[in-house]
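Hello forum,

I keep getting stuck at the same step: I have a sequence, I want structure tokens, and every attempt I make locally crashes halfway through. Rather than fight my setup again tonight, could one of you with a working pipeline run this one for me? It's a single chain of 386 residues.
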Amino acid sequence: MTPFAFNTTKSVVFETGAAARMAEVAGATLGKTVLLITDSGLRKLGLLDPALHSLTDAGHEVVVFDGVEADPSRETLEQAVEVGRTIGATGVLGFGGGSPMDVAKLTALLLGSEEDLDSAWGVAQAKGPRLPLVLVPTTAGTGSEVTPVAIITVGAEEKRGVSSPIILPDIAILDADLTRELPPHITAATGVDAMVHAIEAYASTSANNNPMSQLLAREALRLLGANIETAVFEGGNAAARGAMLLGSMLAGQAFANSPVAAVHALAYPIGGTFHIPHGLSNALVLPHVLRFNAPEAHAVYAEIAADAFPHLAEVDGSQARCAAFIEALENLAETLGMQTRLRDVGIPESALAKMAEDAMLQQRLLVNNPRSVSEADALAIYRAAW
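Reply #2:
Ran it on my machine without issues. Output:
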């Protein structure tokens, strides 16, 4: 068997209502002075309140930084770090979707080590140590609570990442109560995002693709495929919400160790340039990247097709099942009411060439793709998606 390494979050708490017991679950880890990183929308919704009350009632000082935006900028990260330094934070609590959790990861790193961010970009460059870190996802999509990756927008539109086991949190808390009020369009986009993580992890050509990641990816697809429509159209369904959170986490564990590929590489220019949410960016290019990959990867995609869509087990032949899998993913996006074309989200055809050029900057992802992607290939994929 090929050697591999598998890293994940040390402790996972899966419990409805766990956030309201934050002091009991994570207070000892976070320490006396907690920097809580989130976004203004979550704060206004009051989703933080149970966790805040739990911590403050137990004697912790909590300072909230709620300035995180979608595709967070380096400037936002630096502001969060400055708040943490000012209060003498003993621990960082990231609360939200992927953006707040990514900022929380790097804030904990920079506060705990005084490390230079520019020396930490890339794979295994961050040295640490970091402050104690607890992450609480409020969407079922990014899996950021169990991934060693944080993505920041540098300059106008370039995305850079830090990838290191050092920024895995001490505790991840999965509380379905926090996702029940998510609007249908966010539930759909983040759910498809999690499915992309599982698909790309399973098919990754990374040398670290491994049996554990593949098992996790398949179970993630089973949970996500079986529950995404219920979660979108019956948002108060606790069982579906919990299954989506767990599926998202399992997909996160899979791709944290068997990295994603061209879907993400081509999605980044969509988000970075046009500020389209990450999950929707992935969904827009997903079927077109899979069709491009199919000549090399149809057997791999056929293996997982029935995990997400059980009726596809009846389709004989790997090429036919792969084609049916891609079609089922396209139909799912339409069923969920998602935009399915680049033009639908305001991207002009004239932007496609620059997007293809920008996608080539994501070589750390493209190297994991089942089929080599040139700039001309990327442009053809964007044209098919337009």
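The beta strands are 11-14, 33-37, 61-65, 91-96, 122-123, 133-137, 149-154, 158-163, 171-174. If your local run keeps crashing, start a new thread with the error log.
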